[in-house]
What does this fold into?
Amino acid sequence: MMEVQRRQSRPVFVGGLQIGGGAPVAVQSMTTTDTADVDATVSQIHRLEDVGCELIRVSCLNINQANAISKIKARISIPVVADIHFDFKNALAAIDNGADMVRLNPGNIRVRERIEAVVLAAKSAHIPIRIGVNEGSLPPLTGGDEMPEGATPKLRGEFLVNRMVKAGLEEIQLLEELDFHDIKISLKAFDIYAMIEANRRMAQLVPYPLHLGVTEAGTVFPGSVRSAIGIGALLMEGIGDTLRVSLSGDPVEEIKACWEILRSTNLRQKGPTLVACPSCGRAQIDLIGLAQQVEERLKQLDKPLKIAVMGCVVNGPGEAKDADIGIAGGKGKGVIFKQGKIYKTVDEKDFLEVLMSEIETMEVPARD
Amino acid sequence: MMEVQRRQSRPVFVGGLQIGGGAPVAVQSMTTTDTADVDATVSQIHRLEDVGCELIRVSCLNINQANAISKIKARISIPVVADIHFDFKNALAAIDNGADMVRLNPGNIRVRERIEAVVLAAKSAHIPIRIGVNEGSLPPLTGGDEMPEGATPKLRGEFLVNRMVKAGLEEIQLLEELDFHDIKISLKAFDIYAMIEANRRMAQLVPYPLHLGVTEAGTVFPGSVRSAIGIGALLMEGIGDTLRVSLSGDPVEEIKACWEILRSTNLRQKGPTLVACPSCGRAQIDLIGLAQQVEERLKQLDKPLKIAVMGCVVNGPGEAKDADIGIAGGKGKGVIFKQGKIYKTVDEKDFLEVLMSEIETMEVPARD
It folds into this structure.
């Protein structure tokens, strides 16, 4: 198992949650409710907390939504980020109501004095600001910035990256001029090459932590695949301090996708990892059925075990040897392994129950 | 949209399908049926062809399975790879029965004369051989190869990569000594860092095309996320000529995941790309519902259009401008865009039908 050398970033503290500065990569999402509907919003956040959401963003499009933050915070356990667009007064109200961070979009609060007012309020409340750059809402083009006629796709991509990085740097400069440094940055695009390249450049240019995401990625499955490639590439380079997978779907799916990305890149473990071979003509048992039943039962389990469900003699034993516990099934009989050693033989009809009962009682081995 | 500079590889021809040498990255899967059950196998392959599978591997564990290949090939339209383990006679039978390629695992056919017999048969049938290295079934350790006691995770990772690359190179050398060069290679591991690093090294060392995959990745959702990160990282570097996403599930899901990976990395388009923003408190319409309905209807559509479903004024117009056609919804009314220009205003109740009817009649714009 390989390890990532993570980029050193300057930490920010969002409520009790450290982001950057060597902290574990934080998992976050955004509510889809009307923030002013406190019951609905709290209920959604509770579902998100249950699956491992560590930070939640809520939309503050109007004063009622901003004012709801104090009521929401009283009923949840994770810090709240107020998402602000266009109207800086919503940011001030959100801060007054105890928001743990505000997110500003440099593309749509364009008046310097208004940004200053938010920065001063954040400073006196001791909360950080996220500068959230989005390819869909960049600041207007200024002279000399126009895309050349007939630009190639490659040139158009570079042009987009430059605009994204520039939008972020200008906002950072404004905050730094006000002696404000509790900054987190995100640079999101639908095109993963642009998103990766913008983040790589920003990681070189400033010390602040980075929030990773692919914007408007789509519905659950395609959006998760697209986000996994873009976010995963940066995480494997050591870039990124928190992530959000943006999906058109239940935000619970966003959290599940975040955890799969972190697990796959060996950055964090939450609950068990299931290793299962794709069934093929070699499998002599109903491997897909067994793997899916095990997966279902593992949802209740929080132990960071690596569990293998293997259907054949070819790859099964080799792979299961690497798992903390595994089953290699054959016709009528199977074998349970624990950390490389055959532990017991099991009848096919008892595969699921015996494996699960072993998993439930076993201790998590120490990792080096 | 950024572009990938693809690694130049020496092409192989699997039936009518070119792999490597600048051909589009080919999409493949493996059947989960007993290959000897011709009806079941053909029926599964037909379902896979329908969703864009271009090459299918079938398991040949015994002579009956190998002999079934001629009957299967008579009823399908894509080339067939025979998956061989342990017994070289199954490879000979598969070749006799018209297999378009055989896959050999260097970890389990260890007798030189037997491999030679397969190579000679492949040569006279003019079909290529895939050398399929798998971390779960590597050749036995030889003297000096043992892992040092107390190795760090990093060292264990390097050790695994070295063993994988070595297993591949030794088999390549054997084939080259027999003047056989119609070779494709795969190096699969569960750990994506090991899988990426092994492929990077092999890409430098030999001219042959690479088949990418993450082994025993798990059930559909976690397995797709893990595979997307590992395979996606290599594809973005220009490495990889064909891919398989190994899932414990219906192989149709493997093909869907392959296409999402290719679409996300801008390497190939198949059918429409849906851009949809994650709904949030800003959305004034039921965006998730609309996006899911559009996604469902798009399953019938083969046009490579980029279609946007956006729920708010913040990011919607900017993003939809980049799509071939899009809808930006607001309360009661929405606007349909076509390639950056407002095309018509639509009542909320007609969003789906008007958007779909526009999509169905519009032509695919030329791409540069």
User: Anything to note?
Assistant: The first helix of chain A runs from residue 38 to 50. Chain A has two domains: 12-264, 273-361. The longest strand of chain A covers residues 341-347.
